[in-house]
Amino acid sequence: MTALIGVGVGLGVASGPVARMADPLPAPADETSTRTAEEERQRAHEALEAVARELERRGEHAGGTAQEVLEAQAMMAEDPSLAEEIDGRIAAGKTAERAVHDAFAAFQETLTAMGGYLGERAADLGDVAQRVLARLTGVAAPGVPDPGHPFVLVARDLSPADTALLDLDQVLAVVTSEGGPTSHTAILAREKSIVAVVGAAQAGELADGQTVIVDAAAGAVTADPTPEQLAEAAERAQRRRAAASAPLAPGALKDGTTVPLLANLGKPDGAAAARALGAEGVGLFRTEFLFLNSAQAPSVAEQQTAYETLLSGFAGCKVVVRVLDAGADKPLAFLTDDTEENPALGLRGIRVLRAREQVLRDQLTALAQADAATTARGEGADLWVMAPMVATVEETTYFTALARELGIRTVGVMVEVPACALLADRILSVADFASIGTNDLTQYTLAADRLLGSVASFQDPWHPAVLRLVQEVGAAGRDSGKPVGICGEAAADPLLAVVLVGLGATSLSMAPSALADVRASLAAHDTDDARRIAAAALAADDAVSARAAARAAASPTATV
Ligand code: PEP
Ligand code: MG
C-alpha cells in the first residue's frame, strides 16, 4: 500500500500497530413504540440528562480546552430545541431510540449545511447522539479500544470526549479518515502534542495490528513500512524529543541573528503554558475566539478584563492583538451577515468592523484601557494592535488613525490579501508593522477555500507564488526598517520557518507546541543559509518542488 495522505497536525512522527475504533452504533429500527409516549419521553430525557452529566464529569477530569469542548457537548445534550424535536417525534409514535436518532440527524444536517467552523461541530453532535443511543439500548458507548499495548488509533473521527481522555502512554498516534484541520480531533491533538493525521480518506483500509508510520509533518501514513523507514522515523522522533527537552533559548539563527518566537493564542489565560514552552511573547491573539458564542457585541468592560489577563500574563513582553476578524471561517453572530453567498470574499475582517465602527471603537478602547491599567500596576506588556484582512493603503490609513486616536501606540496590519502584499512598501509607509497571515494569504493567492477538503492540496504555503508575496513584504520591511512577522501556520513548519526568515521575516508566531521544533531548526542555519534555502524554494514551479528544493538546499545541515 502506498502512503495515505491527509492533513498532519503538528510535526511529529510515530510508528506502531493499528487498533481501530469500533464503528458507530447502527441506526435503530424505525418501528412503532409499544410503550406509552410518556414512558418513551421519560426514557429519552433520562438518557440525555445522564449523558450530559457524564460529559461534564469527563470534562472536569480532563481540564483545559477539553473541558470547554465537553461542556459544550453537554449543553448540546440538554438543548431545549433538540428535546422539543425529540418529544415531537415520540408524540408521533416513534420509540425514544428512533426519535433521538432522527432528531440529532436533522440538527447535524443543518450544522453541516452551514459549513466552516459550525459544520465541523456536526461531528460533536453525532458523538452525543451515539452516547445517548448507547445509554438507551444499554450498550457501551463506542470508544477508544484497549488492545493491551501501545497502538496507533485509527478512527473515522474522534469525539472530543474520546480525544480528551486518550491515554498518552498507550496512544502513539491518531489517524482519522474524516475531519479537517479545524476539527476538534485536530485542535485537541495539537494542544496535547499527539502525533496525528486527520482526513486521510483511505484510513478505513488499515487493519488491526498492521504496522504504520504516521508522519504529521508530511501529512502521510505509511502502511507496512520497510525496516529502513521505521529506523528513520524512530531517529526523527528521537531528534524531536531532544529538541523539546533542550534548554529554552530565545529564537535565533546559528549566527546569532535574533528571530523572536511568539505564540498564537485564542484565550487570555494561555500565558503560563506558552511561556513554559519558550514563547517570547504573543504574535497573534485571536480576539474573535473570545466571542464565538456571543449573541451581542461584548462590552468594553468585559473585553478589558480579558485583555488585562492577557497582558499581565506576558508582562514585559511583546503582545500583538488582532481586532475582531469576523466572517467566513470565523462567523460572529453579532457582526456577520450569514446570507452572503461568498463570505470569504465578503464584508469581513476590517471591512465589517468599519461598517460597524462602534464595535471597533469599543474594542480599541478596551485594549487601550487594559494597557493603561496593567502598566499602572507594573504588569504592562508591549501592546501592538493589528487589523485583519487589510487590502488597501486607504484601509491602513483609516485603521492606524483610529487606533492612535483611541490610545494605541503601535498599530499594524495583517497581510492576508495579495493586494496588501503587493503594495507592502506603501502600506508600511503608514503602518508601524506588518504580520503575514499565511493561511489566508495562501487561500486568496491560490483561490482555494481553506476549509474545503476537495481543494486542500492548493492550501500549501510552500507555493512559490505565496513565497514571492512574502518576499515582497520582507523587502518592504527591510527598506522601511519596520518589523514583518509571520503568524500563519507556515511559521510552525521548521524548514519553512527558515525560508520565511530568508525572505525577510523578523519574527515568527505559532501554536506554542511548535516552538521547540522551529527553535531547533533556526539554530541549525545562519543568515546566508536561510537566504540560499529561500532562493531554492522560490525558484521552484510548485509547492511540492519548492519543499523538495529547500530540503536539498538545507542538507547536510540537519533540520528537525
Ligand atoms: C492567517 O490567516 O494566516 C491567520 C493567522 O489568521 P487566521 O488563521 O486566524 O485567519
Ligand atoms: Mg486570517
What does the model show?
The protein has 560 residues and is of the alpha/beta class. It folds into three domains: 4-21 and 144-244, Glucose Oxidase, domain 1 (3-Layer(bba) Sandwich); 37-137, PtsI, HPr-binding domain (Enzyme I, Chain A, domain 2, Orthogonal Bundle), CATH 1.10.274.10; 261-558, TIM Barrel. Helices cover 46% and strands 13% of the residues. It has 22 helices and 16 strands. The chain has helices at residues 37-62, 64-77, 80-91, 96-114, 116-120, 122-137, 160-164, 184-191, 227-245, 271-276, 300-313, 350-355, 357-376, 393-405, 418-422, 424-427, 438-446, 464-480, 494-502, 515-523, 527-538, 543-554; strands spanning 4-5, 7-9, 13-20, 151-155, 171-176, 196-198, 211-215, 220-223, 261-265, 281-286, 318-322, 382-387, 410-415, 433-436, 484-486, 507-510. The strands form two sheets. An eight-stranded mixed sheet has the order 1-8-7-3-4-5-6-2. Helix 14 links the parallel strand 12 and strand 13 (410-415). It is globular. The mean pLDDT is 91. Residues 284, 286, 325, 416, 437-440, 487-488 line the site of phosphoenolpyruvate (PEP). Phosphoenolpyruvate (PEP) binds next to strand 10 and helix 17.
CATH class of the largest domain: Alpha Beta
Can you name the CATH architecture of the largest domain? Alpha-Beta Barrel
Unreliable residue runs: none
CATH topology-level fold name of the largest domain: TIM Barrel
Strand fraction: 5-15%
Distinct small molecules bound, one entry per kind: phosphoenolpyruvate, magnesium ion
Distance between the termini: 27 Å
DSSP helix count? 22
Rg, rounded, reads 24 Å
The CATH superfamily title of the largest domain:
Phosphoenolpyruvate-binding domains
Beta strand count? 16
Biggest sheet character: 8 strands, mixed
**How does the overall form come out from the CA principal axes?**
globular
> What strand order characterises the main sheet?
1-8-7-3-4-5-6-2
